[in-house]
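S2.1 Query sequence (CYFIP related Rac1 interactor B)
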Amino acid sequence: MGNLLKVLTCTDFEQGPNFFLDFENAQPTESERRVWEQVNVVLKDARGVSDDLQAYKGAGAEIREAIQNPMDESLQERAWGAVVPLVGKLKKFYEFSQRLEAALHSLLGALTCMPDSPTQHLEREQALAKQFAEILHFTLRFDELKMTNPAIQNDFSYYRRTLNRMRINNIPAEGENDVNNELANRMSLFYAEATPMLKTLSDATTKFVSDNKNLPIENTTDCLSTMASVCKVMLETPEYRSRFASEETASFCLRVMVGVIILYDYVHPVGAFAKSSKIDMKGCIKVLKEQPANSVEGLLNALRLVLFTDLSTTPDWLGIKAQPPPP
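Output structure tokens follow.
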């Protein structure tokens, strides 16, 4: 247990190798420990961020009352008092996305460095592969929660409008020092994305490739395509799926599979949805559609959003259609 076991090596170049990875028990070796410990500090905080986002209720009632009664100073103060601590939480989420970006860079550096191939890295450095998967799992979960909570953007929009009005009237604003105008602009761009955390990781992966020009791009894309193949094989093969100690591991694999597909699509010159892609997209979508609909709709929507960004690559054989982001 705890090992990355090769269960199938295809001779077909397009299919690539497939593996069984014990996501539940992989432990770091001495050679992995330095990077693993750095990333582990970030991952320990990921659960708290996810829990805080899930519990985020917003200040919709207070904001509506303040807008409907613009001359009632007590209602304005009440709304502002409700929004300021919520914006503090939104700041925390945004700052965590930057920490996650740095962690991803460290993992990609370890899993793609020369002279070993990404396949060799994934076989030997199972604990780092597991951490990579945990980052993707968190990212998809965060974005699902954000997409179903309109209060986030409503709260932040109200905060910015009110803050600007206070500045014009030279009124001191509580919380302005914590979220200044420059930071507010960056946060606004972050939350304007339909999937902000995934966009952060996608941009970070693209930046990793551009910053490491001596590293073949295939090292990065092959790492991603191999991870997608790992998850697909484990999910579609009863023998391997039965090894999961918890059914939650299946949900974990589904999120990781979708996450690496999207990262691959951002980085690879022709994307994940071309027939020349090393990812078996038709097979991956088949696996998704075989799960209970309510458990994978968010993941299918994430793939539809990627298709929507480049309609020229939308193939009919995939079985899903491009979908614009929600308004």
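Residues 73-112 form the longest helix (40 residues). The longest strand covers residues 4-9.
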